[in-house]
Give the backbone structure.
Amino acid sequence: MTDPSSLTYKQKILLYLRDYQHQRDREERQEEITQEGISKNVGISRTHLSRVLNSLTEQNLIKEKLASVVGHDRKMKTYSLTSQGLAVSNKISEELSETSIDLIRGDEKRTVNLSRVEEETDGKLDLLTCISILEDKDSKKIDLREEGIFEPVKMVENLPDISEFYGREKELDKMERWIESDNSVMVVLGRKGHGASTLTAKFIERLKERHILWINLEETSKDKIKNRISNFLKKIGNESEKIIDELASQKAVVVFDDYYELESDVVSFLSDFLERIEKSDPLKMMVTGREGTPVYERFYRRNHVEQGVVKELKVSPLGKEEAENILRENIEEEALDRIMMFTKGSPLLLKLLREGNKEKLCELTPWEEEQISLLIYLKTETKD
């Protein structure tokens, strides 16, 4: 088995050029396969590199070609592997891939093969970079935090189920624009059962470069919220008594889910939180709530919206196409219209209809038993 710490420059260059083999038949090539590019990325002096390249050429492991290079007016010497060189490079890679190392993410340590590191870090560490790190450290461990690799912390217990998610592309696009904007806070408002929480959960699933903290406001208290934030900061590795100030300095999204009929101390906490967030802070705050919440019960004021601190996003009812996807039936047009008239496009009510859950529908709606039976029957009225 090849030891990563004992690789020669010849072996490193063969490994490096393997990733650029697709360039060999192009008329215009990348700077990475010129002498300057190889020197910089492999970590070898230009003087020493010339001797190594000559040796590899004589061994028929690489070939040299004068070619046009992106960003340069004149042609330059470029290098690629021969079929023999590719075979040798593949063999080196296979042997290295069997090497086990400790991959450290904060408090977590996992033993993985070198072949897995690039996938584990979403492409941030390739094989050659790992080898350089292991050589410098003279050990078989890579601490991602020490190497400046961002590893997001996700505290997302009680996240809504998003296995069934339909449409909402317009809302998701607005969320994407918001996360890149100066707006610090987004409030996602919808009627009960319209999916404000599910939409928000779907959005944060897409975020790969931010810490995520999800806090369910149902049956909680100010102290429980503060305790959860403290635990979150410990996981990130930044403990502080001033938890809001510390949280505001993090590249994170904190979600307060289900803002509805809360205790006054929770409302005050969120109001204070909002007042201490600046547009320049990397932190983003999302709150899901009921569209019908009176203004006097909200934690923000109209001037926050007008000044661009808070962005409101109202979740609209689902359309007929999305409703039919939930019901999983090719429903006759008139029957679907009647179902939409009753459910108002509520994802929750549509799912309960699909399941035929009369008990829950009686609990959540003013519908009579006969109406519920009719709606359940209507969803079986399919097109010919």
Summary: The mean pLDDT is 84.
